User: Which sequence fits this backbone?
């Protein structure tokens, strides 16, 4: 007796954690955000640039959590020449490499924008993915505070272009040198200890002072059971930071008022005083550009987690209420950020080259807008569907769908083998604005039946009797075959206007 060899094990169909499949609605929402924000960037005089998905690991630098492995915090592999390459974790590090590589041939300052996916080997969370899309704008080669102010003002316009009205988002601004001054005054010289402390302060809005204090001290155990080692700062330095943060807790302060409150704390040293001067110059430029106090606020708790920031830092925060798929409140917080990074290009050239920029987290912003009920779902429509009845009449169906497409109307011919009822359900699930019906009777009479699916749903809602619905056929009209394109185009236009 013989037995067949065991069948090979089937792989489980599953997503890697932090990587999402996205269909039409989500993709179109992201593309529209990129288009709208990119139009703002171009209007402000920034040129597009595209760099590759991979960079050499040493070119990216160790700005994410450090470890012995080059792929800690990033996704890395070895090339055939044994050099480590990594998927880019943002669009700024590749810009620094590009600027260093071709600085002599670039206009100075160099103003560029870029968009595309980035990858981070970090713990996923609500609205936080390992692969996501960013849309950046940066100015390389200017140390003027007006360059920072322009980036901030442009970010505000980008938020409006994304569909957010006044009061629905705010850009918070600070300067990393404020904490450099505090650390210097407290005798904290170790760069790793400073960075750990800054990353702890960066979580102030999410963890509150108690959580931040733990991370400034020995460490913190989060709700999932993960332990994060703290900065282990002296108790006196932690107390100074607490006093510093509490001194500007009043949300009603103007930008100038916040600077005055910080100055009164004292103990900032020469570095911290220089930071206040830079922020005052940014405020003056923002006022000259008529950027309101509500749209941009100074907030010293903003430090940004990446190591390469050297001065002014910015963070865009969504203020809309958001809920998850089950209706539970969820906080998205930051939907974009950036700052000044004057030392990044110097890693390649040895010469300091000032730079500043801002990045929209497109995937995160799209998720946040959808969670706030502000997504583009209603505007994302499927094509007009031409119903198929008989193989013998296929030429009529192909002619109809071609005429619609040639007139600029998105249309598809149903290519399954289901009956009419199932085809109508298919059109509904596709979000089609209309269905085109060319049965034998219509073809013989030189007519076509066009079903306005939006109107049909609206009218059907007011018909309680099933027989009445069948007889009235809400949203359905019969027109001469020659009027097919004009009739469908009118329905599609109405659908776009309504959305």
Assistant:
């Amino acid at each position: 007796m013989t037995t067949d060899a065991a069948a090979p094990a089937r792989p489980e169909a599953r997503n890697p954690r932090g990587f999402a499949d996205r269909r039409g609605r989500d993709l179109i929402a992201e593309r529209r955000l990129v288009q709208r924000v990119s139009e703002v960037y171009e209007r402000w005089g920034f040129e597009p640039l595209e760099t590759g998905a991979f960079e050499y690991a040493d070119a990216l630098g160790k700005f994410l959590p450090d470890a012995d492995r080059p792929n800690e915090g990033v996704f890395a592999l070895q090339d055939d020449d044994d050099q480590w390459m990594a998927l880019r974790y943002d669009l700024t590090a590749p810009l620094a490499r590009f600027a260093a590589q071709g600085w002599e041939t670039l206009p100075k300052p160099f103003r560029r924008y870029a968009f595309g996916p980035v990858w981070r080997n970090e713990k996923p969370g609500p609205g936080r993915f390992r692969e996501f899309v960013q849309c950046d704008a940066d100015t390389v080669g200017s140390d003027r505070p007006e360059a920072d102010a322009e980036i901030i003002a442009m970010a505000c316009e980008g938020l409006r272009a994304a569909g957010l009205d006044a009061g629905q988002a705010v850009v918070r601004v600070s300067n990393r040198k404020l904490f450099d001054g505090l650390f210097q005054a407290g005798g904290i010289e170790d760069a790793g200890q400073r960075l750990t402390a800054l990353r702890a302060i960066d979580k102030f809005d999410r963890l509150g002072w108690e959580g931040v204090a733990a991370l400034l001290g020995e460490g913190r155990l989060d709700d999932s059971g993960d332990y994060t080692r703290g900065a282990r700062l002296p108790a006196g330095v932690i107390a100074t930071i607490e006093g510093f943060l509490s001194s500007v807790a009043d949300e009603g302060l103007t930008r100038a008022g916040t600077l005055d409150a910080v100055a009164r704390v004292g103990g900032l040293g020469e570095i911290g005083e220089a930071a206040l001067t830079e922020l005052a110059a940014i405020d003056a430029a923002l006022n000259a550009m008529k950027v309101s106090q509500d749209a941009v606020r100074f907030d010293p708790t903003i430090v940004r987690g990446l190591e390469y920031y050297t001065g002014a830092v910015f963070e865009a925060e969504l203020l809309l209420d958001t809920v998850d798929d089950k209706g539970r409140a969820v906080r998205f917080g930051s939907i974009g950020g950036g700052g000044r990074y004057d030392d990044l290009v110097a890693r390649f050239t040895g010469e300091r080259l000032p730079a500043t920029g801002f990045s929209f987290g497109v995937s995160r912003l799209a998720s946040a807008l959808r969670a706030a009920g502000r997504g583009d779902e209603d505007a994302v429509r499927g094509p007009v569907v031409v119903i198929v009845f008989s193989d013998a009449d296929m030429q009529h169906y192909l002619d109809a769908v071609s005429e619609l497409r040639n007139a600029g109307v998105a249309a598809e011919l149903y290519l399954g083998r289901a009956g009419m009822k199932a085809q109508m359900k298919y059109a509904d699930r596709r979000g089609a604005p209309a269905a085109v019906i060319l049965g034998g009777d219509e073809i013989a009479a030189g007519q076509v039946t066009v079903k306005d699916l939006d109107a049909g749903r609206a009218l059907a809602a007011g018909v309680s009797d099933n027989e009445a619905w069948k007889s009235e056929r809400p949203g359905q009209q019969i027109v001469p075959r020659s009027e097919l394109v004009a009739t469908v185009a009118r329905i599609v236009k109405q659908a776009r206007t309504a959305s």
Remarks:
- Residues 28 and 273 are 46 Å apart (CA to CA).
- Residues 24-43 form the longest helix (20 residues).
